[in-house]
Amino acid sequence: MIVDLTAVTSYRRAASRADLALAPGEEVLGGGTWLFSEANPHVTGLVDLQAMGWAPIEPQGGGLRIAATCTIAELVAYGEAANIPLFGEAANALLASFKIWHTATVGGNIARSYAAAAMVSMAVAFDAEALIYTPDGGERRTSVAAIPAGNGENTLARGEVIRAIDIPAAALRGRTALAKEALAEHGRSGAVVTGRRDPDGSTLVAVTAATLTPRLVRFPAPPSADALRAAVAGMGGWYTDPLGSADWRRGVTQVLAERVRKALA
User: Fold this and answer.
1) Which residues does 251 contact at the CB level (< 8 Å), separation at least 6?
2) Quick one: pLDDT at residue 97?
3) Is the pTM for the entire model greater than 0.85?
4) Which of 81, 146, 216, 218 has its CA 20 to 30 A from that of 39?
5) What is the DSSP pairing of strand 203-208 with strand 191-197?
6) 222 exposed, middle or buried (CB, 10 Å; 0-12, 13-18, 19+)?
7) What pLDDT sits at residue 3?
8) Cα distance between residue 15 and residue 52, in whole Å
């Protein structure tokens, strides 16, 4: 499976925080579905996180902690059991087979930070925060929405490792919805809109895949169709690639946002 990693000369399993200190050329390995998918000549060593023994999903004060090493399959199974439909909806927005679900990790998908990262779409809808281990032995917290810095770029410093994604209890009490569109029937999502309406009526709408980084708009009460359309149209960050033009992404996102608004109502 590591045929494209021709420069790798070492592999070790991390079992403690001390093991997460990276030597030059080492990279953290979660599920490896991206890392093993193409040549990475700069990678000379792999540090496997699976031996850290993190529980995939842990209830915390009414909220949830999702380990970075939690697989997509584990997330979907938990969502089905706990009636959190957005977990499965987001997984189905990920261009991946069911086999990949059993290997790809939530933390890896977020850290890779592609515009269409489905776990980013899920996490931002819940106002999730990432707990990040820093290379000096400390830790810091940031919103998941602040991690992507571009298509395949993130704000993590060298040696920082996502430990977990924390979803607050208040967010889990809201109603959620997801709508997506792709130019090809089985192609990567060109636009994804997720939303959450809390019991007090406050509403969050998040745009991913269509913009280089997540774009979030908040309303103190359920927005009208016109208000939401104007908010989405005024967003920046639309981009063009072989999977869709910026104009197409802007237009289709407004349609998806209206579907989400109706679903939340």
Assistant:
1) none
2) 67
3) yes
4) 146
5) antiparallel
6) middle
7) 54
8) 5
Which H helix or E strand runs over 263?
Answer: helix 246-264
Residues counted in the chain? 265
Under 8 Å between Cβ of 49 and 32: no
Question: Does residue 144 carry a pLDDT above 60?
Answer: yes
Residue 103 has which token pair?
A: 């290997």
Where residue 62 falls (left for φ over 0; alpha for ψ -120 to 50; beta otherwise) is: left
* Alpha carbon distance 168, 91 (integer Å): 20
How many angstroms separate the Cα of 86 from the Cα of each of 15, 18, 260? 32, 35, 12
| Sign of the Cα pseudo-torsion (142, 37, 21, 57, in order) | positive
Q: Are 162 and 156 in contact (CB under 8 A)?
A: yes
Dist CA 96 CA 26 (whole Å): 26
Map tokens 């309303």 to a residue. 219
Task: Calculate mean pLDDT across residues 88-96.
Answer: 84
Is there a contact between 78 and 57 (Cβ–Cβ < 8 Å)? Answer: yes
